[in-house]
Amino acid sequence: MKGDRPTRKAAADCDKYIFSLHVSMKDNPLISVAEYERQCSIYKPWEKAYRVDGWYSNRAENPYFDMDTLLAWEKEERHSAGTPYKVIEVKAEPENGIFKGRLELLKEHDVMKGGVFDEERFPVWRVWQLPIEGEKYVIAADIGAGNPKSDPQSVSVWKCSDQTRIKQVAQLHMTRIKPGELAQQSCCMGNVYGNCLLVPERNNDPGGTFCDRARLYSNLYKEVTIDKETEQTLTKIGWRTTRFNKGSMLEAAFKSIQTMAAEQIATGMDSKGMVQYANWCPFSSRVTLQEFIGFEERLEIAKSGDKKIVWGGKKGSHDDCVLEACIALRIINHQFGIISSCVLPKIMEVSAPDNHYLGEKTKPRSRAFAGLRTQPSLAELRNRHGRC
């Protein structure tokens, strides 16, 4: 499985009565090879597919982020499918603030369409790195309505111990999951990663439902604002994206990605024994990387003639992964002090795919050393030899 979300097939591949014909500049006899190459040289490399060759593309026409860097990461396949896990809600009591979760490994053929744990209907987390003691993690969530035709839900875990080497270590990306259930899944996943900071977006009604269900989570992000009328301090759960802070949030994400792309790390040795270097890519998910490639800045003109600049995904595509990632990068770069380190339980078990959850247990003593006595203290040795 190359990606972490199935791609839609063309209509001609799904219905035998639909016939499609692709026509490009190469099919026009009046356009010479020299003219075709001249047209290719006019446009940027990522524009050639849809401006010259006539192929549909979800890439941004006026990209907001550095397209050269993003396309290089896509070409090098820095993304991967990840390992499928399901979060077992061992004990979830939202009214008491108890969210205890465990991870259970799933088989790849079970999470495909029609499988036991179909990713379109069952919450399957894609995990690239399990929690590590002492590391810092942030969970950011962009919440939708959870209906079949609504925007997908996007929740990701970001490792951020080093602000110049942020990494996406887990993601839940699906449509058919209600905000309340998503909140419990996110809180239990936060418990797995050492009760890490959870930052949900509260812009819409689904976001409000999410925040209400997760309001007693032990490490929930809260915004402190001052009411203009009463001049009183207000504390609100979650992050709110507005027209006043969206620009600065995107700018912070742009600078953070540029900084990480300039960070060179050793990746291994080549055949000649020379050390190979590559820049740092924060994205592990193919869906997240593709949505960043399709995120653009465009000018919209209303019927009244008013003009405004809009930031979002290309028309027909989603931007939920982009906004969720930008929220996480904004918190990591500007409020790093509120992010706590991961503290794991003494024993953290991940059950096998064909076994039920084993639960917590005390580490048993080894039978091989059961008959051995502990080392005597200095006082005991003195008493044995009759010394005071």
- Count of DSSP H/I helices: 10
Q: Helicity, in percent?
A: 10-25%
Number of strands: 13
- What general outline do the C-alpha atoms trace? globular
Strand residue content: 15-25%
Question: What key phrases describe this protein's structure?
Answer:
388 residues, alpha+beta, Nucleotidyltransferase, domain 5
Question: Could you describe the 3D structure shown?
Answer:
The chain is of the alpha+beta class. The protein has two domains: 1-57, no CATH class; 75-338, Nucleotidyltransferase, domain 5 (2-Layer Sandwich). 25% of the residues lie in helices and 21% in strands. A hairpin with a 5-residue loop joins strand 10 and strand 11 (275-279). Helix 4 runs antiparallel to helix 8, helix 7 packs across helix 9 (320-334) and helix 8 packs across helix 9 (320-334). 31% of the residues are buried. The model is unreliable at 1-6 and 349-363 (pLDDT under 50).
Concise account of the structure shown:
With 388 residues, the chain is an alpha+beta fold. Helices cover 25% and strands 21% of the residues.
List the helices and strands and how they pair.
Layout: H1 11-14, H2 33-42, H3 48-51, H4 67-75, E1 83-93, E2 98-105, E3 125-127, E4 137-142, E5 153-159, E6 167-174, H5 179-192, E7 197-200, H6 205-213, E8 222-226, E9 233-237, H7 246-261, E10 264-269, E11 275-279, H8 286-293, E12 295-301, E13 307-313, H9 320-334, H10 378-384
Parallel strand pairs: 4-7
Antiparallel strand pairs: 1-2, 1-3, 3-6, 4-5, 5-6, 8-9, 10-11, 12-13
